[in-house]
Design brief:
Number of strands: 11
Oligomer: single chain
Helix content: 40-55%
Distance between the termini: 46 Å
Number of domains: 2
CATH architecture of the largest domain: Alpha-Beta Complex
Strand order of the largest sheet: 1-2-3-5-4
Order of helices and strands: HEEEHEEHHHHHEEEEHHHHHEE
Number of helices: 12
Largest sheet: 5 strands, antiparallel
Length: 330
């Protein structure tokens, strides 16, 4: 309650003698919260980022980079970094996840990949933190530390640990060999808003400079919504062709590009399983458990395709041998 009172007082100082109401807009897996401030003639979004846990400066920095790239991000009207408050434009309340269906999916994903290409074309190597080996490995380690150990309650044997490490080395080597661009890091249906121009892009404060396929894996191997593989293949080919024509550093052969995309997706999904487990067991947020079967579905399908990932596929069979979980066939 104290934070909301502080936020209300701050808004009142910005708009003296004006009446407004405040209602929750959304929350995410971090300590950030968002409120919708409604005035008689306009609406704002207020970000509440407690400074002892969150830093608003990366949000401001990445937002400017993306805006300069020509994509639609929230305007920043006022800021109080000491208190951790930002006053932002309202991009609406309809996420891609809420509206995606068979009739609009191609149009919405085309808009998303067009925006992604703009971001990637604007990339410069010194503007954002590097998605380096240390960060990639730290993310991968969330899988054994939180998913296997804490969530499944399993202690790996020395042989299993060695096999997992073998695959981690291969994954990271592939990821680091990919061309680098700006990477949103959570470019998926919950962070894309249907707006004009479309899409509105949010939750970009963790952006880095890293592998070009990462945001595509976020978008098309989405932890919250699943599409048929032939549809995804069509969208990826369209992106790959458009990106090559735009001058982005793409493989000349689509098969090589697709393998990079698959390997990047495996890195991301191992991380996500670890994060979802940590959110549940450390933070008491168990809502993400229902999304684990889809993430494992992506992982098993990718690992079954590539000999480099076979040890990981075998490990999944040892840890969770059942073939079907929650409607997803493996």
């Amino acid at each position: 309650m104290q934070r909301k009172e502080q936020l209300t007082k701050w808004l009142s100082s910005l708009f003296p003698n004006e009446n407004f109401t405040i209602a929750p807009a959304s929350a995410d897996a971090s300590f950030r919260r968002y409120f919708r401030a409604t005035f008689s003639d306009r609406v704002y979004i207020v970000m509440d980022a407690p400074p002892e846990q969150e830093d608003c400066k990366p949000f401001l920095h990445v937002g400017k980079l993306f805006k300069d790239a020509g994509v639609h991000v929230p305007e920043v009207y006022a800021q109080d970094l000491e208190q951790g408050f930002l006053l932002l434009s309202d991009l609406g309340n309809s996420t891609y996840l809420q509206v995606l269906n068979a009739d609009n999916v191609r149009q919405l994903y085309t808009s998303a990949t067009d925006a992604l290409i703009k971001i990637q074309l604007a990339s410069k190597p010194d503007d954002l933190p590097i998605y380096d080996e240390a960060l990639l490995r730290r993310e991968l380690n969330l899988f054994p530390d939180w998913y296997i150990s804490k969530h499944l309650g399993v202690t790996l044997t020395d042989k299993q640990t060695a096999k997992l490490e073998e695959v981690f080395v291969r994954i990271v080597a592939n990821n680091l060999a990919q061309p680098c661009v700006y990477v949103h890091r959570d470019f998926h249906s919950r962070n894309l808003m249907t707006s004009e121009p479309n899409p509105g892009i949010i939750d970009f404060q963790d952006a880095v400079y890293g592998p070009i396929t990462y945001d595509l894996a976020s978008l098309f191997k989405d932890a919250y919504i699943c599409w048929e593989e032939d549809e995804i293949m069509d969208w990826l080919i369209r992106y790959w062709d458009k990106a090559r024509n735009a001058g982005l550093p793409m493989h000349a052969d689509f098969g090589d590009f697709y393998r990079d995309y698959e390997m990047m997706g495996v890195q991301r999904h191992l991380k996500i399983l670890g994060i979802f487990a940590r959110l549940c067991h450390r933070d008491g947020k168990d809502a993400y458990l229902k999304d684990m079967p889809l993430v494992m579905h992506y992982l098993r399908r990718a690992c079954a395709r590539y000999i480099d990932l076979k040890p990981l596929h075998n490990l999944f069979l040892e840890l969770e041998p059942q073939g079907v979980q929650d409607g997803y066939t493996f």
